[in-house]
């Protein structure tokens, strides 16, 4: 199957991450045209937003060649992707460890993170960004994932500048799409680890329940990086999901 027939996937990475994390998944989906975004040198939250919107606009300008357009987003990238979908700018979403609202009140602690957590990260980034990234990555995995060596497949820290790290945290702290989920009418494929400490699984359930067309793939004993080491399986499920959207179950 050619890339022209299958469509385009625009990949939005998570906080502090290079799009190289999607490399194996892209290789498992050779029938799609892939577009990557690099947030590593962003100077501000507006810069990240503009980079994202410009990439979407370019993809849509080439829509005759590579349609349908999917946005694949992980964590921070998933939040951005949901916002774009609420504006009607995509034909479908493929989301990993995504949330409609990262910051939660004390009463909603099982759905997200407290504001104090992100504010503390922002202060610490300005002191020692490498230490913050190391500490953050320690929360990404379950014990069995560490034992299996999945974390060893991850790219090294340090790909984002300090302004980019702060910009990403600012977006996580301030952006939310909970209030516009009903406007996301395109099909959404959600993949979420059931032991995710960063974007808790209950938040994924809430997101799936709030979307008009969502399918949630729940992965047991999995943390915040549900695609890593599972790319072949997920690629097959993505193809099956989109086939069902087009032709029925």
Automatic annotation (TrEMBL):
SUPFAM superfamilies: alpha/beta-Hydrolases. Keywords: Hydrolase. InterPro entries: AB_hydrolase_1, AB_hydrolase_fold. Residues 9-236 form the AB hydrolase-1 domain. One of its GO terms (molecular function) is hydrolase activity. PANTHER family: ALPHA_BETA-HYDROLASES SUPERFAMILY PROTEIN, HYDROLASE. This is Alpha/beta fold hydrolase. It comes from Paenibacillus planticolens.
